Amino acid sequence: MRLTLVVPCFNEVDVIERFHQAVSRELAATDEPYEVIYVDDGSKDGTLEAVAAIAAADPSVRYLSFSRNFGKEAAMLAGLRHAGGDAVILMDADLQHPPELIGRMLELHGRGFDQVIARRTRAGDPASRTFFARSYYWLINKWADVELMDGVGDFRLISRRAVDGLLKLEEYNRFSKGLFAWIGFESAVFEYENVKREGGRSRWSFPKLFEYGLDGLLSFNNKPLRAAVYMGTLLSLIAVAYAIWVVIVTATQGVTMPGYATLIAAITGLGGLQMVMLGVIGEYIGRIYYESKQRPHYLVKETNLTPPGVVPGGPAGPAR
Ligand code: UDP
Ligand code: MG
Known about the structure:
The chain is of the alpha/beta class. The chain is built from ten helices and eight strands. It has helices at about 15-30, 45-55, 70-80, 100-110, 125-145, 160-170, 175-185, 205-220, 225-255, 260-295, and strands at about 5-10, 35-40, 60-65, 85-90, 115-120, 150-160, 185-190, 300-305. It has an eight-stranded mixed beta sheet, sandwiched between helices. Helix 1 links the parallel strand 1 (about 5-10) and strand 2 (about 35-40). The chain is elongated, with a radius of gyration of 25 Å. The two termini are about 35 Å apart. The structure holds uridine-5'-diphosphate and magnesium ion.
């Protein structure tokens, strides 16, 4: 069995060398043939040069480099497209995904699981982040069409047929957690202790996490649109009832003037609600807009794969 390791890297020059040594040791220990594909996502700190040097010294290393930063989703997609293995492991370059787990993943894969998922514990995370994550997963599992699990990221082994399934999903807005869940297949989950980043910086600030969360909610269902329909219906019913009441009062007691508070509350409340609904509709239209442009997910600047150049295919989220 041939194994492909796909590693997206963005400004990881501090750790990439150490990462490569660590995974090479683990991969050699598995006694399976393997290749490592480094996808440089438009790094500006010399990651590309480091990766090219690693590739020059190690024939099992392949790499490609994007013309700019297209995002991790695009980098993973590129790696998956070029992966030749019977199984693919997706792994971060920052050593937060312990290379020691590769053996465990292969073992579970050998038992017939198409996806072997490593789930991190939340040890060491700030309490606020844990709280938001928990609430978010509760919400998304209530709403979205796919089931997502807290602590599950992109660190996983994917079998060839599951990779082929993933590659059929060509959407531009790639919410990979959802895509992995969407393809299905038998999956095994095991836990590992959360690891702190060893160097470089995480790309996740709170606003970015918020946007990512929103992406997840919107990418996999049209329930927000449904909610708008229900809310609108409910409000219309209330409005009709209120109108009837006003007419009755006017007919029986003549025109009475009070009602200022009701008026202002209704105007501001409904105004706000309408803006929110418009925003929801706008989000979906924005997605349609990006999909309809049919742009490639990424452009390749340099690679030791052949042939280099523009990789055809569907659309990766707008650069964020
Ligand atoms: N990454 C990438 N493109 C980006 C941002 C990140 O390829 O635009 C890579 C990064 O080099 C790392 C992985 O994605 O290998 C995870 O990134 P990070 O550690 O910043 O995320 P976190 O671990 O905090 O979720
Ligand atoms: Mg990380």
